[in-house]
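One record is kept unedited as follows:
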Amino acid sequence: MKVYVAGYQHETNTFAPTKADWAAFNRGESFVAFIEGQSMLDSLRGVNIPIGGFIESARLEGWQLVPGSWSGAIPSAHVTREAFERISDSILAGIRLGGFDAVYLDLHGAAVAEHIDDTEGELIARIRAIVGPNLPIVASLDLHANVTHRMLAQADALAAYRTYPHVDMAMTGQLAATLLKRRVKRGSREPIAYRRLPYLIALNAQSTWLEPAKSHYEEIFDLDREFDTCLSFCMGFPASDIAECAPMVWGYGERAEAAVQRLYEKVSEPTQWKIEVLSALDAVERACLLGDTNEKPVMIADTQDNPGAGGDSNTTGLLRALLAGGAGKRLPGKVALGLLFDPAAARMAHDAGLGASITTAVGKAVPTFTGQPSDAPVHGTFKVKALSDGKVTLKGPMMTGSRITLGACALLEIEGVLVAVTSGKKQLFDRELFRMLDVHPETMKVLVVKSSIHFQADFMPIASHILVAQAAGPMAANPADLPWTKLAKTTRTTP
């Protein structure tokens, strides 16, 4: 069997300040830069992303892969019209050539363009219009996909991650391959059932390492065995202002209706999704007290500036709280924050050299969903403690083996607080992103990371406590705080 493979990854926070233009898909910050043809297969083989898992399954099945293109950009505001159309054109060009028996797409599921709210549904529909109604199309999705009726209708099968942090990305590509095998063996689409939850779930409540999500995703495996189904539960990305932004449960199989109903009854109970979020100052104070009495570091999630959710990774609310709370003086050299996106400060540090002191401002005041800007840049004199070219191979459970380039990076110290400054945006979910600047997480007392949940995969084994902090930024910890305009009237912003 010949399978055409391609991919398109973007998670769109429609309330964020910066859009994803064509250049964003070619920078290689969180993903490899736009790539096509055989080099795509060579570069993504063995990487813990869905297409990597699908490639491995295809090898074991003896399938021949026909490569299209693959592209991804760090989460942000809307994908520009130009960027989406160029990505679509590159994928459709290969589709029009034909010569394959099925299509596999590595998609996110929450990508919104300037001109199209449901870009994944649009892309699948464009492919369907070319290949006709009978050629199988399967796709893998992120757990944060806002799954639309159009996506479910146009694709033969969709499979989503079952972990957050996403440590099962390659496994989801393998699951998509299993669904393709089932589809081909049956000769027609499997029966499908689905239910949409009537409310949004905050990102910080979605960790599958913790309850309630942990038990719900374990239940999926049990239900699949009992009903011979393939179930998915997307908790959704609660910052995409589109009508179909909401969690979705769905599944395939002769008994899918019963399995989906069982899962829906458990996940839809609303009170289980409540979370505690601290102010920046309260989080710092609690972390310092805990740091005094624990050997392992205390983690603070700077969730509202998470570059994995549309933030630009450059706000200073948590840095200001660390300085105001005297964290660096109470725990000197044992407090670090990262990654702070500030190319100018990183370049200044490189020009000054290791050991030098520079007087500058770091960070940026950016627009937020409240209509007010985030905290002002932090002015001061910083000592240059370490320098890096920003070339990193990730070793943690997420995106293991991925190579990323963040440009000139520097570790700056101010009042005993270490600040990892970069020239590229990247969510801090891998310890190597600290180690590249000679910060060894295991030896620290307090670590502030611009992340919501993904950092847990690599940091939870070394952390004593995890706190969630709310400082001014583009990503609301509480979806109810966002100024929604398109969300369906039947969907509540909180459980």
